[in-house]
Specification:
By secondary structure, this protein is of the alpha/beta class. The chain is built from 15 helices and 22 strands. Helix 4 packs parallel to helix 5 and helix 9 crosses helix 10. It catalyses: an aldehyde + NAD(+) + H2O = a carboxylate + NADH + 2 H(+).
């Protein structure tokens, strides 16, 4: 694993090693449970300085022509791609994901989004519209930058989420103060340094560190014009409420309890592969995971037998080994949380434990014995009222629910306050589209799961979010519209005119 240096608040283009700090906390390698470095918590003075730096940089950056901003951001893309493996190794150290995943997904998909927005603004993505209103008047619109924005990252895809937020923010001419999750903070300074090396002016991208109190102070700050948050529903609601009270723009990407519906004509091989990708990729720590798997009753034995066979293809172990495809959970508190859900499923919900449980994977290297490892777990014969089928677990825990007819499956799938993602697997594409049309979720898939390209706008329904990220729609969330009406008739239409005196007869 790579060695890393301590992390400090980053603003005005450099790491502020001499700045005031309200203390430190440790970044923990989840595979071993050992600390990797110290993180200096940003004080309120640090946050103020970072925001001041962003505010000072805003005027120049926002007035830089989009084509010039694009060239700078594309240089950052080149640097990200050149340093992919170096950055991926840091992500593995920080998150516990296998290098086979971080090197092919995390940095790559973040760079894709930055490249997409850099090209979009270079090709007129920030252009407004104009139209003739009448013979003497026309209207034009412009898309104006917002100002200083706050980005609050999540711990499961650290550098990807940092890029998903900063790419459209900076492309639109805004500046950002970014706070990574205190659980996985190592990427933030590296990204700031890459932006600086690419030519992003000092103060355009800044980093503060800490837990909820730092995020709370940042998002409530009067100079912050927008808050983009990724995290759990309960926290997101608090952040959104606070921001709305200050009339700030918000984008919220929150949690899910997403349904995956297998149709009765689906090849069982495809159904099982889809369910495994939707539950065990990234050790199940994905907000869009399809953790409620609805399977036709007639497919029960075939589905479960093949699933048990393919569970053996999940390989925990040396995170640097390219054959390893399963890592630990991200932290001790999260490990304890997932264990408590598994125990509740067994002891309280009385769900049938098909495989897994609260133990560690077999044959782990001795260096990993104190890490936060957990075996992939599957509960079957689940009901809709169970806690494990109602609440987001955010771990490698699949719940299988059987259904008799498709209308019933769709109704049960929608019976949740969350609406982040949903998907369907089947041979009849027309039927699949009909199911997708009925599912209440903002991100949906047919015969696949999890892919989220830069071109595809993604966002949740219901309590799963506000606004979207990525795609053309994602850029609209980082600008404000200005409409201008131009009257060219040579006089001002007015009702305040002098009345003519009527002559007496």
């Amino acid at each position: 694993m790579p060695s890393v240096s301590d992390r400090y608040t980053f603003y005005s283009g450099k790491s502020q090693t001499s700045a005031s700090s309200s203390g430190t906390f440790k970044s923990i390698d989840p595979s071993t449970g050992r600390p990797s470095c110290s993180i200096h918590t940003s004080s309120t003075q640090d946050v103020d300085s970072a925001i001041s730096s962003a505010s000072s940089a805003f005027r120049s950056w926002s007035s830089t022509p989009p084509i010039e901003r694009s060239r700078v951001l594309l240089k950052a893309v080149t640097l990200l791609r050149a340093r992919n493996d170096e950055l991926a190794a840091i992500e593995t150290l920080d998150t516990g994901k296998p290098f086979s995943e971080t090197s092919t997904v995390d940095v790559v998909t973040g760079a894709d989004v930055l490249e997409y927005y850099a090209n979009l603004i270079a090709s007129g993505g920030l252009n407004g519209e104009s139209f003739r209103l009448r013979d003497s008047a026309w209207v034009y619109t412009t898309k104006e930058s917002l100002g200083v924005c706050a980005g609050i990252g999540a711990w499961n895809y650290p550098i990807q989420i940092a890029l998903w937020k900063s790419a459209p923010c900076l492309a639109a001419g805004n500046t950002m103060v970014y706070k990574p999750s205190e659980v996985t903070p190592l990427h933030a300074q590296l990204l700031a340094e890459i932006y600086r090396e690419a030519g992003v002016p000092d103060g355009v991208f800044n980093v503060v560190y800490g837990a909820g109190e730092v995020g709370g102070y940042l998002t409530k700050h009067p100079q912050i014009q927008k808050v983009s948050f990724t995290g759990q529903v309960s926290t997101g609601k608090k952040v959104a409420g606070s921001a709305a009270g200050e009339m700030k723009y918000v984008t919220m990407e929150l949690g899910g309890k997403s349904p995956l519906i297998v149709l009765d004509d689906c090849d069982v091989n495809i159904a099982v592969d889809g369910a495994m990708m939707a539950n065990f990729f990234s050790t199940g720590q994905v907000c869009t995971n399809g953790t409620r798997v609805f399977v036709p009753k007639a497919m029960k034995s075939r589905f479960e037998n093949l699933l048990l066979e393919k569970i053996s293809y999940i390989r925990a172990g040396d995170l640097q080994n390219p054959d390893t495809n399963f890592g630990p959970l991200v932290s001790k508190p999260h490990y304890d949380k997932v264990i408590s859900y598994i125990n509740h499923g067994i002891n309280n919900d009385r769900a049938k434990l098909l495989t897994g449980g609260s133990g560690k994977p077999k044959n782990l290297p001795s260096t990993y014995q104190n890490g936060y490892w957990l075996t992939p777990t599957v509960f079957t014969d689940c009901t809709d009222s169970m806690k494990i089928t109602q609440e987001e677990i955010f771990g490698p825990v699949m719940t299988i629910l059987y259904y008799a007819d498709l209308d019933e499956a769709v109704r049960r799938a929608n019976d949740t306050e969350l609406g982040l993602a949903a998907g369907v697997f089947g041979k009849n594409i027309t039927r699949c589209h009909d199911v997708i049309w009925q599912l209440q979720a903002g991100i949906t898939w047919v015969n696949t799961w999890g892919e989220s390209p830069a071109e595809m706008a993604v966002g949740g329904w219901k309590s799963s979010g506000v606004g979207v990220e990525n795609g053309r729609k994602g850029l609209e969330n980082w600008v404000q519209n200005k409409s201008t009406l131009v009257e060219m008739g040579g006089e001002v239409p007015t009702v305040f005119t002098k009345l003519e005196t009527k002559a007496k007869l």
